[in-house]
Amino acid sequence: MAYLITGATGNIGSLVVERLLAMGERPRLFARDANKVRSRYGQSVDVVEGDLADSGSLAEAFRGIDRVFLVNAGPALAARDELAAKEARATGVRHIVKLSTIDVHQQNVGTGVWHAQGEAAIRASGIGYTFVQPSGFMSNALAWTDAIKSQGVVRSSTADGRIALIHPHDIADVAVVALTTTRFDGLELPITGPEALSYGQMVAIIGNAIGRPLMFQVISDNEERSRWEARGESPESVGYHLSIFRAIRAGQLAGLTDTVTRVLGREPISFGQWVRENVAAFR
Ligand SMILES: NC(=O)c1ccc[n+]([C@@H]2O[C@H](COP(=O)([O-])OP(=O)(O)OC[C@H]3O[C@@H](n4cnc5c(N)ncnc54)[C@H](OP(=O)(O)O)[C@@H]3O)[C@@H](O)[C@H]2O)c1
């Protein structure tokens, strides 16, 4: 089986590559900067340099490939999913495992609308697919490191709403099963962590791990918007982050799925475990 991995320098794509290498596979990586992936993986992989917006480089990367792990991000992701599916089909690729989001099951939350359009385009292309649909990544909590280190306070408009963030390793493990077996072909895999926690509860878990009491402070939507704008985020990014925080506050994202256990035969990893692995970042 020949595998093409996109997003190999990113959060989940890199973990997928590591797992394939550990299985003795030699994946082909599609990257904007070949040197960046070469310096990371050496000669253990094949590399095609290209851009997900460029059909020529996609066609070159897909040649001889059976199954693709597809990571697209940002407002153009649906058009890029469509382009990738079209080129993949034309080149003889059989299956795409798309990194999507569980927010496709919500109304106008986060990147859910873009990913829903991307999924629809992949379905319509007629190529085989699996949609891996994670909840928010536990690693998003790394955005709190500066505030925790400098002030001991995390501020958010999520109030006491809860969300079951998922460990990036669980996402990658599920994606690799979807990529290397046919067990989940044609399916959506909505995946969450094991328990829904409020931001205040997560901050308290981090405080326990670093041995320092931390505060969680609720802010308004307007304050939240100003903070994201001050960081220079695009209007789209500000908008989708605010919609996620509102949905968390309203309790819309507190649901759990048993998909990780069904796919992997083990429980998803807890937030406490993720914090233990990353405690140095918060000290
Ligand atoms: N964060 C969350 O909580 C969350 C939750 C659910 C779903 N998701 C979804 O997960 C996906 C990954 O998000 P992420 O923030 O984790 O991404 P990420 O780690 O930043 O990875 C993005 C990857 O895509 C590559 N890339 C970007 N533009 C490209 C282009 N034009 N051509 C080729 N490669 C390109 C980047 O490579 P370079 O090295 O070239 O930049 C990088 O490897 C997104 O679709 C997001 O919506 C995220």
Brief summary:
By secondary structure, the protein is an alpha/beta fold. 45% of the residues lie in helices and 16% in strands. Helix 1 (11-22) links the parallel strand 1 and strand 2 (28-31).
Describe this structure in words.
With 283 residues, this protein is of the alpha/beta class. The chain has a domain of 177 residues: NAD(P)-binding Rossmann-like Domain (Rossmann fold), CATH 3.40.50. The protein is built from twelve helices and eleven strands. The strands form three sheets. It has a seven-stranded parallel sheet, with helices on both faces. Strands 7-11 form a two-stranded parallel sheet. A two-stranded antiparallel ribbon has the order 8-10. Strand 4, helix 4 and strand 5 form a beta-alpha-beta unit. Helix 4 runs parallel beside helix 5. The longest helix has 15 residues. It is globular. The protein starts with a strand and ends in a 5-residue tail after the last helix. The relative contact order is 0.13. NADP nicotinamide-adenine-dinucleotide phosphate (NAP) binds next to helix 1.
